[in-house]
Known about the structure:
Chain A is mainly alpha-helical.
Amino acid sequence: MSAVVAEHDHHDEHHDHGPAKGLVRWLITTNHKDIGTLYLLFALAMFFVGGLMALVIRAELFEPGMQFVNPTFFNSMTTMHALVMVFGAVMPAFVGLANWQIPLMIGAPDMALPRLNNMSFWMLVAGVLLLASTLFMEGGAPACGWTFYPPLVLRDCGHALPFAVFSVHMLGVSSIMGAINIIATILNMRAPKMTLMKMPLFVWTWLITAFLLIAIMPVFAGAVTMLLTDKFFATSFFDAAGGGDPVLYQHIFWFFGHPEVYVMILPTFGVASTIIPVFARKPLFGYSSMVYATASIAFLSFIVWAHHMFTVGMPIAGELYFMYATMLIAIPTGVKVFNWTATMWKGAMTFETPMLFSICFVVLFTMGGLTGLMMSVAPTDFQYHDTYFIVAHFHYTLVPASVFILMAAGYFWLPKWTGNMYDERLARFHFWMSAISVNILFFPQHFLGLAGMPRRIPDYAVQFADWNMVSSIGAFIFGFSQLIFLYIVIKTINGGTGEKVTDEVWEDASKHSLEWTLPSPVPYHTWATPPEEVPSEHF
Amino acid sequence: MSTNAHDAYYIPHKAVWPIIGTAGLGTMLAGFANYLNGSAAGSTFMIAGLMIFISMLVGWFTLQANESESGMYNHGVGISYRMGMMWFIFSEIMFFAVFFGTLWYTRNLSMDWLGGIGDGPGRSTHDALWANYEAKWPTNGPGKVGGKEGEFESMGAFGLPFVNTLLLLSSGVTCTWAHHGLLAKNRDQLIKGLMATVSLGFLFVACQAIEYHEAYSEMGLTLGTGIYGSTFFMLTGFHGLHVCIGAIILSVVLFRSWKGHFTPENHFAFEAAAWYWHFVDVVWLGLFIFVYLM
């Protein structure tokens, strides 16, 4: 291992291949590992910013009555919490993983379009800055919900609207460039023997996710552009007086919005399908069915959008169609859950932290999925719509699913990236604190929603007081537990437990995927020549 | 600066243009947002940002052209670039799909509901607010929004729009003719073909400008003329913008052809520009049918 590193240092002096000195390195880097690190650190920072906003919300809801913030600021917090978490934390975190892992896993020297890769990241930062600037502006940050429904957003959004719109444009450009890069990398840069059906599932899920991103981000950009022209240039897209229709916005938004939620969950599936086989010491069960299920979910995501709009008003045929189409999603998703379970079946399992988070993901994501199935039934959705039941549902699919799997990915790959081992005891403590508190936080919200508590309100009737208090206590425990993760990550980067990890890190991991055949820590440049032989999940 | 001994994939190191371009675009959009909010300094920032962004385009594309001409891109790099361009055009198709979808939805669904036909969500709006509104395209809505005292003329298909269709279609032909010239190492044909394509493109934009001027000054048809004006100007306006971008891209390709760039084997920039131009062409055909003809 040290020989390889030394050779690289030698190489650097002569060919100027190493990173630039100082902070400039991060501004102008084209290295997929540097850019992956930037994405992951940015996402981690935004996770805490968005988390802080969530704690403002939960603090206000701790008791009925108005405590800490005024209602507009409360609504700004629900809006910004969603936008920051979706566009600033979860999506960039998965792009960061894609940057780090895809070239390593397919045997490519870097991403296909390295300069574009750099621009994708900095566009993301610029977009989030535009959005964050609204917090300090007259009238405050957008308070209309992350969906920006007209006519509310056009009357109520103050100075924030154009900033929010242009922020969406920049985030869209960033996502599209990132997605183009990922597709070109996967389709064009694989090692000769890495056929499509040998690729790790993480790579497959990202290939499909990237397609979703290119298809939907322009749609969102178009929708918010029409908001902008309705507000500032006298158009009538969403104004019935001029012959437009505010419901049209919702159709366009959710045509983007539904695939968007799969943008956050498909890579989650990919990471889970990568981690579980390693700790079950078995090949992934049903590899090809996993690929087909992912593709099916992606296809279905484009034809189910109006299940977000059952109560808005649609012709009855529309209600029925979107109800049945939505139920279909349970089939490929069920295939995946059964495959993960079957992978663990009779496996020689060990329960290191990445595996703990992954198993917890399988269980709690299934719960979030089943409440989704409940809401797909249009007549019952009239009861659930806009209540805390919805909040509970999508937080179960996002926090103990996407966020937990991101934690799992951190614990799984950090030793490979840094060459240092994290503190397993502390990590397990982090896991148990998170797993317990996340349920204290979100499970009671099911009860609140079923009892009729609406979402996005700063105050509520006294009958909701008890479960709100429980939920808020869970929120604070969960929030502060994540500081343990921050501590572990920083400590691992700075040497960890002092124990140097092997190249494989996890027992027999190199049977599953290529990155474990590289030295630990991974050198700055890898796969200058592609690997001769490639492992796969078919051993 | 980094070609390995074997025919390796070109991995650039230390790129400065992406961060400059990001700063430019960010400044421009922040300036535009401030301008829309009525701030005096907004337009200054907008123009400054645009200048930075343009200098990024010039700098980055010059760099790429030089690298390409010095033979740094192997076959694999060419495939990545082609994939990148194809998927970029796909994203553009999705962007236009939004506005075509908007036209379809408002014209075929929500207008009828506002007129009291069918059981859609706008039906109760008809009953409660505009019981006299009759659904008939072109419309500026039950509130008669915009126009000359609420009245306007819609844009016919046979006149300038038909001329524009012929212009763009023939520009597609000249573009392909230029490509044949490039492949046959006939530089004269390449340059003439490109000059014709670029001229036809800008001629199209000029006709569009005349059409817009007529609409605004004589027909009572503006961006604010209800849903007809909104969809008409949004669709044709974004298309016109794309024609301008395409013509500028082709101008750069023309300039490079003059300088002797491109070989029958290595001419990604030409191909990308041509694909983009054909895409713009096809969008226009959609516009001609759904906006003007129907």
